[in-house]
Specification:
Chain lengths: 183, 191
């Protein structure tokens, strides 16, 4: 329920459309009537995607810390670029492959010196890091960005699960000079 | 494709006026969490600087989201109720940005400003569903970004405030998925 501010009479009526079922209905009706076939396809794929997301979420929520000693002694997991594409959606708050956003673009990432995309406003810490991006440096950085490069503006706890990290890196390697980046 | 953004859309709105318009509990509680808190002034400078950096990155993403919703609103692809929804979500991102900017200042940092131009995949936005899917992707990313930021703050009240914004972004994502005819809540956990 949306509270009404005492100094603002009538706010309940003006409250977010999110709180009003009539708008939900109107939104859905408008969209659905325009794209029923799209919705059918979307719904089918969403159930698949939901299963994948659920599995990914379980991985993320799994007892990573408890597994860490075992994983430390195990060989590095082999990355799956297709699985990494789903992990990459987490990065899309700030990054895109082909253009700079809050974070720099990822096209051409592999082999690039950290802090070197022309025109992007990096932190001094990243510019001075001396990192050249490859699977190994990405693995170290993505595990804990703020520990790997203190002073980075990438305020993100990291991808803690080694398999998820390997998948993400496999995707980044695949995409670094892939078709999206060739455009 | 670069997209010029009218400066009026990027100005953080007056907080009181926004609360008056939306009446949302989120902003009121977040403001209460942060406004005039002695811990913000008393914290260790290095910790405060790191907290400010994290908040500033979030601020940059919020400013981009405001611009992205404006692209959707101006696209001419949205039917009226969907356009209203987009404007509501944009207003909430403005409230987040306003709060983040003021908190960065309180921590001794300099809030990032909105860019004069943002790049969005406008060539891929042909239908209302495309716009909604684009927005849903941004909101999902925002959920992940805040989730990744929550454990990092030295000041736990900032973690609480970030989690409060995370909840709002997650609601946006769910509503957009629902509007697309997709399962609004696809899993028991977010990542």
């Amino acid at each position: 329920m949306v509270p009404q501010m005492p100094s603002q009479p009538g706010n309940a009526a003006k409250a977010s459309v999110c709180a009003r079922g009539t708008h939900f209905t109107a939104v859905n009706a408008a969209l659905h009537s325009a794209s029923r076939s799209l919705r059918r396809v979307a719904c089918a794929s969403v159930f698949v995607a939901a299963s994948v997301l659920a599995a990914a979420s379980v991985l993320a929520a799994a007892p990573v810390l408890a597994a860490a000693p075992v994983l430390a002694a195990a060989p590095a997991p082999v990355g799956d670029a297709a699985a990494g594409a789903k992990i990459y959606t987490r990065c899309e708050a700030c990054h895109a492959l082909a253009y700079d956003r809050t974070g720099p673009r990822h096209c051409g990432l592999i082999g690039r010196k950290a802090g070197s995309v022309p025109g992007f406003d990096y932190s001094d810490a990243m510019k001075r890091s001396g990192i050249v991006w490859n699977a190994k440096t990405l693995d170290r950085f993505l595990a804990d960005p703020m520990k790997a490069v203190p002073g980075t503006t990438m305020g993100y706890a990291g991808v803690k699960d080694p398999k998820e990290r390997a998948d993400l890196i496999a995707f980044l390697v695949q995409q670094s000079d892939g078709p999206v980046c060739a455009k | 494709m670069s997209y010029p953004v009218p400066s009026s859309f990027l100005e953080p709105i007056n907080r009181r006026a926004w609360i008056g318009r939306s009446g949302l509990l989120l902003s009121a509680s977040a403001v209460a969490m942060l406004a005039g808190r002695p811990a913000l002034a008393a914290g260790k400078p290095s910790h405060a600087a790191q907290d400010a950096r994290i908040l500033n990155t979030a601020l940059g993403a919020e400013l981009e989201a405001i611009a992205a919703y404006q692209v959707g609103v101006d696209s001419g692809l949205l039917e009226k109720p969907v356009r209203e929804l987009a404007l509501t979500f944009q207003g909430q991102h403005k409230a987040h940005a306003d709060l983040l900017a003021s908190t960065v200042s309180k921590l001794g940092g300099k809030p990032v400003a909105a860019k004069s131009q943002y790049t969005f995949p406008t060539d891929q936005l042909k239908t209302q569903a495309d716009v909604l899917r684009f927005a849903a992707g941004l909101e999902k990313g925002a959920v992940s970004a805040y989730l990744g930021a929550v454990p990092l703050f030295d000041d736990r009240d900032l973690s609480k405030a970030a989690a409060s914004i995370l909840g709002d972004e997650a609601m946006h994502w769910a509503v957009l998925r629902n509007a697309l005819g997709e399962a609004p809540v696809p899993a028991a956990f977010v990542a």
